[in-house]
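Hello again, I could really use a second opinion on something today. I've been staring at a protein lately and its backbone has me curious. Please have a think about how the structure follows from the sequence. I owe you a coffee for this, so here goes:
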Amino acid sequence: MPALDDLEATIASAPSALVAFSGGVDSSLVAAAAARVLGERALAVTAVSPALATGELDGARAVAAAVGIGHRAISTDELARDGYRRNAADRCYHCKSELYDRLAVLAHNEGFAVTFSGANVDDLGDWRPGLRAAAEHAVRHPLVEAGFRKRDVRNTATQLRIPSADKPAMPCLASRLPYGTAVDPATLAQIDRAESAIKALGYRDLRVRHLGGLGKVELADDDLARAHTSDDARRAILDTVLAAGYTDAAIDDEPLRSGSFTGIRSIPLAIA
């Protein structure tokens, strides 16, 4: 199993770095290691746009403070890109291109040598068009270079007591739309309202899939069992979806599986 020393040695090969920082466990581990190795020569940067779910920026700020890395929020405008709005299978390429364009400007203006992402080895076997954008911008992936898989990331983050060690994955809100359904701010806001309201009911790991007028809720195993065994819990979930502006609401009988909505899985994508 790769060790923290391996990750820190990888990061130490850079004189300074920006960390593309969502506040999820992967980028949090990279940020924590960068803070340990580079100190003030590392900066975590979170992109803010309509596709960022409510609460994610505050969470990222809290994690950055906990691991001791400087943090900055920047605005991105992926919705200005036709390829992103069209929402084809390469949507993430256009999103990450926007992000890395902005980070490249920041790195140039403030003298940061490299940009790090939180991609890990497991990401290489999935459909990740954003990795192509990373390659075009010479973004480095320290977790990949050090041989970290997702389980290694969570284990090491737990050892370091990083607050996001057990944080569920939270991809951008656009991932709730089927490919081919155009992305627009109003739709993203509707999804966000529905998910935020369900989280307020005490559910932690979920998605509201946007299917026109139907908001279809996917819940993790434990939460799905809770919803199935209580009519009141089920009704409360459905009511929050309807209150968010959907004309119909449903709860998927299958548990949440990240990436299941793309219809494209296990297609290796090289990063260099």
Notes: The chain has eleven helices and seven strands.
